[in-house]
Design a protein that fits this description.
Blueprint: E1 17-20, H1 21-29, E2 35-36, E3 45-49, E4 55-63, E5 67-76, E6 80-84, E7 87-89, E8 93-101, E9 103-108, E10 111-116, E11 119-125, E12 129-131, E13 134-138, E14 144-151, H2 155-158, H3 161-164, H4 170-176, E15 184-189, H5 192-202, H6 208-235, H7 245-260, H8 268-275, H9 279-290, H10 294-312, H11 317-323, H12 329-340, H13 344-348
Parallel strand pairs: 1-6
Antiparallel strand pairs: 2-3, 3-4, 4-5, 5-14, 6-13, 7-12, 8-11, 8-14, 9-10, 9-13, 11-15
């Protein structure tokens, strides 16, 4: 498999710049911050430019009625590791994240969680939680383009609970109803329907009141699409299981192995043995975390690599098929068209497929 599939780096790179969370906050948002105000009608819409010593780009923060919206568009010169000291989160948070392009990790003790491009997540952390120190690492020369929707309270979701009560995962329903003391996290791939509202948020053409209404509507649309994704996952009759932090780490490791060995992937049983987990927990836990089966994820990864190679234009269709593990070019062509709606040859010729960025 070529290097195009190897998207993750070691967190222990010697080139990483290491700073504390306090230093990062002061550099980005402190007294010497460099800011822009893109909307003269909205003082809550602020662009914080990336400090030159770190890289290029910006964080754009927009305060809406019940939502804090963050648009992050940046690239770092070197690996940047931010170290967070132990702390108590008095307020908690509800975050819907949509990564169009990204490559970063969060490491606590010996547990490493990795997030990459074309992924979304819902993370609900309850207030008064105690957290150990951890490190967040973003990797150099990787274009980070993401939209984060932070709810100011759970009221937005509670207002819809009568409609979604029987459809969402039980753990999330209990949180919405205020009946749980367990945090909730879900990671999945972006769906095709999510790309358009993401593009519309990033390229919002309006100002002032119109912009506020427009962006709030688009944020609610993305929240709805994420909740719809969760209902579809729940409706696939998979037994919900409790995953310990160590189990989650092993399942993320299994995903890495799939990516690195995508030309000749291991069987489910062999993959489970490689990461030290039983195959049933791997199968159910993988779907629980990533929203698809182990080999459904592998298929999507192969198709994405094929798309990149075809758009690069340097390889024939048959060679691309072989590169992503298809011995039969006809089978590859059929799978590619089912995934993207165009044939490999049309993609190679430059026909637009569902990739807005």
């Amino acid at each position: 498999m070529g290097a195009i599939g190897k998207t993750y780096h070691s967190i222990n790179t010697v080139m990483a710049k290491i700073i504390s969370e306090a230093e990062c906050q002061e550099t980005w948002y402190g007294a010497n911050k460099i800011t822009q105000y893109p909307d003269p009608l909205d003082a809550s819409d602020i662009i914080y430019l990336c400090p030159e010593q770190f890289g290029t780009g910006y964080d754009r923060c927009i305060e809406l009625r019940d939502i804090d919206l963050l648009i992050r568009n940046q690239k770092y010169h070197d690996d940047l590791q931010i170290v967070f000291e132990p702390y108590q989160d008095k307020f908690g948070s509800i975050e819907f994240g949509f990564n169009l392009s990204a490559n970063y990790t969060s490491q606590q003790s010996d547990i490493t969680i990795k997030r990459g491009s074309k992924e979304n997540f819902l993370q609900w952390d309850l207030p008064e939680q105690e957290y150990n120190s951890f490190a967040h690492t973003s990797f150099k020369n990787v274009h980070c383009l993401k939209v984060d929707i932070h709810l100011k309270s759970a009221e937005i979701l509670k207002n819809f609970v009568c409609c979604i009560n029987q459809e969402l995962p039980p753990g999330l329903i209990k949180l919405i109803e205020g009946k749980s003391q367990q945090n909730y996290v879900d990671n999945n791939q972006l769906t095709p329907a999510m790309y358009l509202p993401l593009q519309q948020i990033i390229n919002c053409p309006f100002q002032g009141m119109t912009k506020q209404i427009y962006l709030e509507a688009k944020c609610l649309e993305l929240i709805a699409l994420k909740l719809e994704q969760l209902t579809k996952i729940k409706n696939i009759s998979v037994k919900s299981i409790t995953l310990k932090p160590r189990d989650i780490e092993k399942i993320h490791r299994a995903r890495e192995i799939l990516i690195f060995q995508s030309e000749n992937p291991p069987s489910l049983l062999n993959l489970a043995q490689k990461v030290g987990i039983n195959d049933n927990k791997l199968k159910n836990g993988f779907r629980q975390i990533f929203g698809t089966t182990v080999f459904g994820y592998l298929h999507n990864h192969r198709m994405e690599i094929a798309r990149q190679l075809l758009q690069d234009g340097k390889m024939h269709v048959a060679a691309v098929a072989n590169e992503v593990g298809y011995a039969n070019p006809g089978h590859f062509a059929a799978a590619f068209k089912r995934k993207f709606g165009v044939s490999p040859s049309e993609c190679k010729a430059g026909k637009k497929i569902c990739d807005l960025f």
